[in-house]
Amino acid sequence: MTLIAAVVMTFVNPLANNYPGYVVSATGIGVTSGIQIPLVYTIIRRNVGTWQLSTAVGLELLVDGLGIMVGGYLAGATQQLSGNYSLSFYLVGGIYVLAVCFFLPVFLTERKAKTWMTIHTCAKTKIGTRV
User: Fold this and answer.
1) Contact 96, 10 (CB under 8 A)
2) Mind listing the pLDDT tens digit for each residue in 83-106?
3) What is the CB neighbour count within 10 angstroms for residue 116?
4) Could you read off the pLDDT of 2-61 as tens digits, one per residue?
5) In whole angstroms, what is the distance from residue 84 CA to residue 79 CA?
6) Cβ contact 53:37 at 8 Å
């Protein structure tokens, strides 16, 4: 859900043309980033376990660092090509859309599997007994 909100806020940012619009856009992007960053480490721990946690967090920080390193130059290049930063925000919004396309099927598959397990576990247990 936060990725979808980040997509919306990132695409809305170039449409803001006054100070209150910039404040709303920056607040929305900041809130969605503030929600996403702590969730990343929770998701990593859940998926790789504690045995591989340090390696997975290290890889995540490497990928973040590469994005931060390349992102500034890419934003500057798109600004010089188009004359403003709107294209940069559309590019970042497109990357968020790509992330949603990758993670939405995983989320829906996990949700469906969890529902299936709950239904079949409850059907096999008798009322009044512990699982």
Assistant:
1) yes
2) 888 888 888 888 888 888 887 887
3) 10
4) 777 878 887 888 888 889 888 988 898 888 888 888 888 888 888 888 888 999 999 999
5) 5
6) no
The structure tokens listed for 23 are: 């404040």
Would you state the structure tokens that stand for residue 50, as one six-digit string? 């504690």
**Tokens read off for 19:** 């100070």
Query: Residue 100: which residues within 8 A CB-CB, separation 6 or more?
Result: 3, 4, 7
16: phi then psi, degrees, rounded to nearest 5: -70, 130
In angstroms, the CA 59 to CA 52 distance is: 11
Query: Residue length, the chain?
Result: 131
Show the tokens assigned to 88.
């940069």
